[in-house]
């Protein structure tokens, strides 16, 4: 899960057209760092879910760090100047028996913990034990 940090402030300070441009800039930059097999979904507002098949948490961290650096190197141009987009993440390794819904819920919980700790953080949630994944 990925959540843009300070998105409400972008809308409040710069206006909704800049907020919309920030979402497009973020999604475009993210897509450039994803593989063809990866999937992205906007969950609402400024929150996105990524599904990265054949990718472990360490690989996900690396990809997201490349994204973080790309956003720093290519800030969004706004009428009032450049704006560097920052984000927080919740990363999980999905157990083979775990439903996608449960994995997303764990990723969302890890994201909330990352945002509580500090903005622009990554937090990884360990996979559950196999018996904990059954519904």
Fold blueprint:
Elements: E1 2-4, H1 7-14, H2 16-32, E2 39-44, E3 47-51, H3 57-73, E4 76-78, E5 81-83, E6 87-92, H4 100-117, E7 122-125
Parallel strand pairs: 6-7
Antiparallel strand pairs: 1-3, 1-6, 2-3, 4-5
Overview of this structure, please?
By secondary structure, this protein is of the alpha+beta class. It has a single domain, classed as Reverse transcriptase/Diguanylate cyclase domain (Alpha-Beta Plaits, 2-Layer Sandwich), CATH 3.30.70.270. Helix content is 44%, strand content 22%. The chain is built from four helices and seven strands; from the N terminus they run βααββαβββαβ. It has a five-stranded mixed beta sheet. Helix 1 crosses helix 2. The longest helix is centred in the C-terminal third of the chain and has 18 residues, at 100-117. The two termini are 22 Å apart. The model has no long low-confidence stretch (mean pLDDT 87).
């Amino acid at each position: 899960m990925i959540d843009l940090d300070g998105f409400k402030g972008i809308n409040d300070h710069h206006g909704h057209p800049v907020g919309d441009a920030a979402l497009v800039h973020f999604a475009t930059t993210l897509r450039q760092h994803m593989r063809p097999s990866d999937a992205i979904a906007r969950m609402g507002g400024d929150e996105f879910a990524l599904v990265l098949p054949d990718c472990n948490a360490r690989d996900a961290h690396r990809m997201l760090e490349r994204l973080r650096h790309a956003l720093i190197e290519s800030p969004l141009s706004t009428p009032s100047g450049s704006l560097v987009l920052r984000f927080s993440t919740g990363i999980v390794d999905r157990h083979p028996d775990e439903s996608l819904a449960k994995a997303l819920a764990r990723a969302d919980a890890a994201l909330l913990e990352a945002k509580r700790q500090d903005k622009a953080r990554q937090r990884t949630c360990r996979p559950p034990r196999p018996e904990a994944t059954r519904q």
